[in-house]
Amino acid sequence: MSYARAVLSRPYIFTIVFLIANIFVFMLMWEASGMKSSVLWTAFPEAVLLAFGAKTNYLIHFEHQYWRFVTPVFIHVNLIHVLINMYSLWVIGPWVEKLYGSAKFVVFWVVTGIAGVVASYLTVIPGSHPGLISSFLIKPHDDPSAGASGALFGLVGVLFVFGIKYRHELPEGFKRAFGTGMVPIILLNLGIGFLARGVIDNAAHMGGLLSGAAFAAVVSYKRPGMPASVTIAWRVLQIAALVLVSGCFLMATRAYQRNPQAGNQAMVNSDRASRDPQFATFRANYQAFEAGQVAFVNALTKDDAGGINQAVAQLDKTLLNDETDALRVELKALLGRARKYVNDWPAPRKMTPEGVAEQRQLINDYQLWQKRLEDWYWDEGKKFGIKRPEPSPAK
């Protein structure tokens, strides 16, 4: 009882901080989605997920948006997702924070969360055809991935190894709760992950679980009766982890401001379009370009050319001037090349030097077109009061 009282009396401030932060980001995402009740139960639009920092291999690898290894730990796709994860954090987080202290808890949460995102990144193999077992981890499509579950599995890994490592000094109740007592929870979640492997990112869960177990194997906890002082090293790591998270969300915010595709969600709306025919044309043109971009990326990252015909049809319906017509012609040509790439380069050939070179050329041409689209967006947007963000001052 004295052991339990000594542990349970400790604070768990950062469990509450992370819980509030996740809910706050979720509310911002809901606002960016138009406060529609339907998205709470289905999923936020992909544009919103990407704007707030969801992980996609394409944006990390080709756009060098490395902050997407961190931001997914704090965003969720719908209400059920955030409620399940935040309830799990409320149940597990206080135990880890009380046993190891706030400084170590913060480092555990951030690092195991990142480890989960990295594991998810490494197991996306576009064009692959994983079997029943390998599909538990391997993903053939580069779908947006987000959620705190990798970090939560990291905390589970910490408690699992903690219970085994210190089993000889723990009171009976702690032995039953941690260590081998975590096995049913781990097995149940892995079983659910296997059944829902097309929806759940099991690689992120495993990355978090293994990294959390590794942390607990080498890091000692705060024993009852021992001094509560925190070493300078852990305090520095805690601050560094918090600065890293803040910095990554700052970069996500700047990318949101620079990216018309993300900014479009907040800057244009149906009410204004219904009142202003010219604005409605501008909005429809941009939405057609946006649909073409989605179809292009799906073709290259998911081997799915099914949306190209629909995107081309939407482009053909737009009202264009000379500049926008040139953008349309270029995008249609890119979509045609993307379709040919999917049809002519099956999965094994994509891995050859020729296949890689073909994909890289397509991506380079697409990025050049994106730059022209961005210039068009801000130039046309001036007519409607949409201003290009001022560049950050050089440091």
Please give a handful of descriptors for the protein shown:
395 residues; mainly alpha; 19 helices; elongated
Structure notes:
- The chain is built from 19 helices and no strands.
- With 395 residues, it is mainly alpha-helical.
- Helix 8 runs parallel beside helix 11 and helix 12 packs across helix 13.
- About 3% of the residues have low confidence.
In total, the number of strands is 0
C-alpha termini separation: 57 Å
The radius of gyration is: 24 Å
What structural class should be given to the helix and strand makeup? mainly alpha
For this structure, the quaternary state is: single chain
What proportion of the residues is helical, as a percent range?
Answer: 55-70%
> How much strand content do the residues show?
under 5%
Spans of 5+ residues with little confidence (pLDDT < 50)? 261-271
Tally of individual helices: 19
Mean pLDDT: 84
Q: Give the H and E element order.
A: HHHHHHHHHHHHHHHHHHH
Main pleated sheet: none
Described by the principal axes of the CA atoms, the overall outline is: elongated
